[in-house]
Amino acid sequence: MAKKHILIVPGDGIGQEVTTVGKQVLDRIAEKFGHEFTYDEALIGHVAIEATGDPLPEETLVKMRASDAILFGAVGHPKYDNDPSAKVRPEQGLLRMRKELGLYANLRPIKLFDELLEASSIKPEILKGCDILFFRELTGDVYFGKRERLDDGNTAYDTMIYSKYEVERIARKAFEAARTRSKKLMSVDKANVLESSRLWREVIQKLAPEYPDVEVEHQFIDAAAMLLIKDPRRFDVVVTGNLFGDILTDEASQIAGSMGMLASASVGDSTGVYEPIHGSAHDITGKGVANPLASVLSAALLLDISFGLKAESEAIIAAVDAVLKAGFRTRDIANSETPADKILGTDAMGAELLKNL
Amino acid sequence: MAKKHILIVPGDGIGQEVTTVGKQVLDRIAEKFGHEFTYDEALIGHVAIEATGDPLPEETLVKMRASDAILFGAVGHPKYDNDPSAKVRPEQGLLRMRKELGLYANLRPIKLFDELLEASSIKPEILKGCDILFFRELTGDVYFGKRERLDDGNTAYDTMIYSKYEVERIARKAFEAARTRSKKLMSVDKANVLESSRLWREVIQKLAPEYPDVEVEHQFIDAAAMLLIKDPRRFDVVVTGNLFGDILTDEASQIAGSMGMLASASVGDSTGVYEPIHGSAHDITGKGVANPLASVLSAALLLDISFGLKAESEAIIAAVDAVLKAGFRTRDIANSETPADKILGTDAMGAELLKNL
Ligand SMILES: CC(C)[C@H](C(=O)O)[C@@H](O)C(=O)O
Ligand SMILES: CC(C)[C@H](C(=O)O)[C@@H](O)C(=O)O
After folding, report:
1. In chain A, whose CA is at the least distance from the CA of B246?
2. Which homologous superfamily is B1-112+259-357 in?
3. Closest ligand by atom to B11 CA
4. Is residue A337 classed exposed, middle or buried when 0-12, 13-18 and 19+ CB atoms within 10 A define those classes?
5. Architecture of A1-105+262-357 per CATH?
6. For atom 1 of ligand 1, which residue has the closest CA?
7. For the structural domain made of B121-255, what CATH number should be given?
8. Distance CA B263, CA B281 (A)
9. Looking at the CA of B224, which ligand is closest?
10. pLDDT score, position A299
C-alpha cells in the first residue's frame, strides 16, 4: 500500500475540466488497489494572476515542493497572446515552475490506440505500429536565455544557450530509455548552423561509446520535421532541445490523431509534473466537450514514473483502450461515422472510463 | 525578346545533376520563345572549399552580382555534419550569399500536382485543393545573430534577433501576396515565450490596418507545426522567421509528397536565387536517380519572378504536369503501383520534359 500526496494544479482554460476527471481516476485506482492518496490544489497561470498578480504564487511553489507528484492542467489565455507588450504572462508561471522544480526532462510518449488509427490525417498504413518516445530538454535553450529589447524597442533578441551538463543529463535518460526499447536513439539539432547545436551534437557523440548497444542517428530539425510525416516508424526514442522539442512533439501529436490523447511527464531533481500536451483551449473552455483522456493518461504516467505503480498505470491504459473499443469518442476524436450517441462530453467520458476501472 | 544573363551555381551533391536539367529547360524556353539567355557557372559550398578553401569564393560573388538571376543547386556535405568542430563549413557559403545579396525573402510555394496526391503520407482527402505560399525571412534570426563558445567550450549560445525593419519588409511582401490570393495571412511566431517573437507580432499587428482587406491570423510555431498536418487547407499565405520557416517549409514538403517537387525563390535587394528546397542528398549523388523537377520548377519561378516571363513559366509547369499525367515518375515520387518502365532517372526525366516543351 502506497501513501502519497498529490497536488492538483488545473491552471487555465480546459485545465480545470480535464484534471477533474484525472483526479477521479486516481481516486478510483487508490480505492481499487488499496492505496492512500491525499490531495491538495493550487493556482498557476492566468487564474493565479487574477487571484494574486503572480503567475506562480509562492504558496503554489511551497505546495508543489511538499507533494509526491503533481497532476497539471494547462496554462495560457488569449488576452496575453494579442498583447505582445504584457509584462506579466501566464506562461511565465509554467516556465518558472519547470526551472524551480528542476524539471529538465520532458517525456512525451506518442502511442497510438488502434481504434484511433483512422482519426489521424496521416494514412493508417504509414502509422501502423508507430510508437515514439520523445525526450525534450525542458529547463534550458532559448526558453531561459537572456532576452532584451534594444534600440528604443526596435530590436529584440533571445539567447539560445546550452551547457554540456544540461545536454548530458537529458541525453543519458534518453540513452537509457533506448536500451529498454529498440536500442535506437535519434538526436535532433541544427548543427549545420547553430553553435549550441554543435555543442549538443558533441555531447551526444561523446556519450555514445558508453552505450555501445544503442545506435545513434543525428538529424537536423528541418529534416526531422519532414521525416516525422513521411516515415514516423523510423522514430523510436528521440532526444532534442527545448524549442525543437516543443515543435516536434506538437507536430507528432497528429500521429495520434489528436492532442487530446497525449500525456507528458516532466521530471528531474524532485517532484514530477504530469500534464496533457494540449493547451488551455479557450475556444472550448466551459463547454464540457474537452477530451479528458490526455489528463487520464497523465495520471497513468504519474503512477508509473513517480510512484512505480506499474500495474495501476496499465489498468488505466487498458480502461482507455476499452472505452475506445466500445466506440466512445469525444468530439475531437470522433469522425463522420461516429454515431451521435457515442460522442461524449468531458464528464460522460470520465464516467464511462470509471465503469471500466 | 529578353536578353538575360543567368548564373548556374550547382553546388554540392545532386546539385550538379538537377541544375543540368534546369538549364536545359531554360535553354529550350529561350529557343521556343525567342529569348537570348547567356550562362556562366560558379562554385559554392563543399566543392568551393575543395577548390579554393572558401565556401563562397570572391569570384562567385562577383559573378552573382553580374547576373540577372541565379539557378542554384544545393549545399552541404556529410563530412562536416559529423564534425561539429569544423571551422569552415559549406553552409557558411549559402548563408553568406543570402546576406551579401540581401535575399531577405524566401518564397516557397507548396503546390500539389493532382497526379501526386497519392504520393503523400497524408490522406488525399485532407490535401485536395491545398495551395500554400510561404514567406520565410532569410537574412535575420538565429542564423545571423552572434554565436560563441564560453566556459572553456562547455557552454554555447546563438542569438535569435530581429529588428522591426526586417520584419516589416518581409511582412509587406506577404501581405501583398495575400491580396492577390485568398486575402488571408497567417503569421507564425512563439510570442508567448520569445521577445523577438513579440517584436515580430507587434510589427504584423501594426501593419495590418494598412491592409484592411487581408485577414490576419497569428499562430505559435508549435501549433502551426501541428495544424499543418491536421488541416493544411487552413494555410494560404504564411509569413514567418528564418528558423521557424526552415522547419515549417520542410515539414510542408510532405504535403507535396516529396521534397523533390518543391522550388523556392530567394529575393530581396538584387539578383534573385532560385533553388530546390531539397538538399545535397549525398546518399543518392552520382546515381542519376535524383528528381530534377524541383530544379525545373525553380527555373519556372526564375522566369516568372526575376524576368516577368509569365507565359514561359506556365509552359514549364504545364510540361511538368503533362509528364506526370503520362505516368512518368522519378524514384522518390513513384509508388508500388508505378510500372517499372515509367520510373525514370534524372536525365531521362529531363528528356521527357523537353519533349513536352
Ligand atoms: C505554453 C508554452 C510556453 C509551452 C512551451 O512552449 O513549452 C507549451 O507549448 C508546452 O509545450 O508545454
Ligand atoms: C543548409 C541549411 C543551412 C539551410 C537552412 O537551414 O536555411 C537549408 O535547410 C535551407 O532551408 O535552405
Report:
1. A222
2. Isopropylmalate Dehydrogenase (3.40.718.10)
3. 2
4. exposed
5. 3-Layer(aba) Sandwich (3.40)
6. A91
7. 3.40.718.10
8. 16
9. 1
10. 98
